[in-house]
Structures are given as structure tokens and as C-alpha cells.
Amino acid sequence: MDDNGNILARRYAKSNVYVKGTGNLPTDETAIGNEVLKSPNQCLEFEKVMKIFDMKKFQSNVNRELSRAYPDRRRLETQCMSMLSFVKTESDILDCPIWILIINVVAMDMLKSKLAPGEVTRHSFFSRP
């Protein structure tokens, strides 16, 4: 993690390393760095440092979500997680032979300060009895 809260990764192995978003749909907003999103299959380039979590992009997504009538906290929380799969990429991460999930606790803490856990969100609003 750098001083700005970005999470950086570098691929040293000859095997591919793929970055995946944690949203429910492929069209969901993500905080994955633009350089990774532009690479084929969101694969890290060999021996090149790349942003797998972009804090500025995340802050922009948080501000956009907070401007909605019913902000969805869960949508923002899923952006705080980054998945890396090794060797091959699949639509379902559980079909990959080896993968890791990275949780950005700095981003989660920032989200907590902007959207307190007790505040009404779209998810909690519709799930009340």
C-alpha cells in the first residue's frame, strides 16, 4: 500500500496473475486501477507495478453513491475487496485453482467515517420487517 491508500502489486512469476472485481455483476463499479482494467483479461504485466486498488477512484465512487437517494453501503464495501487469481481466470473465482482476497481496511475505515453503520441504506431499508 502506498501513502495515498492505493494497493499496488507486481507480478514476478511467469504464470499469469489476474485481478478480479468483487461486485455481483460485471457492470458494477469497481476501484480497480484503470491500467489493470485496460490489460487483457485484467492480467498483471510481468515485473510491472500496477494499482489493483485505486483510492481516488474509490473516493469518487463513494461520493457518487452518497449523492443517491438511498446509498447502498454493501456496493461500496465490496469495492474495498480485491481478488487475485493465479494461473487461470474463470467467471467464478471458486473455479480457479488458487486465489486470494485482499481487504483494504483503510478504505473500509474511510467508508465507515463517511457512512456510519447505523445510517439507512438501500439494503437495510428494504430488508426491515
> How far apart are the termini?
41 Å
Morphology call: globular
Main sheet record: 3 strands, antiparallel
Summed over residues and divided by their number, the pLDDT gives a mean of 84
Number of strands: 5
In angstroms, what is the radius of gyration? 16 Å
Structural class: alpha+beta
Task: State the share of residues found in helices, binned by percent.
Answer: 25-40%
Our count of helices gives 5
Regarding quaternary structure, what we see is: single chain
Low-confidence stretches: 123-129
Beta-sheet strand percentage?
A: 15-25%
Strands in their spatial order, largest beta sheet:
2-4-5
Summarize the helix and strand pattern as letters.
EEHEHHEEHH
Summarize the structure.
The protein has helices at 34-38, 55-66, 73-79, 105-114, 122-126, and strands at residues 7-10, 17-20, 49-53, 81-86, 98-103. The protein is α+β, with helices and mostly antiparallel strands.
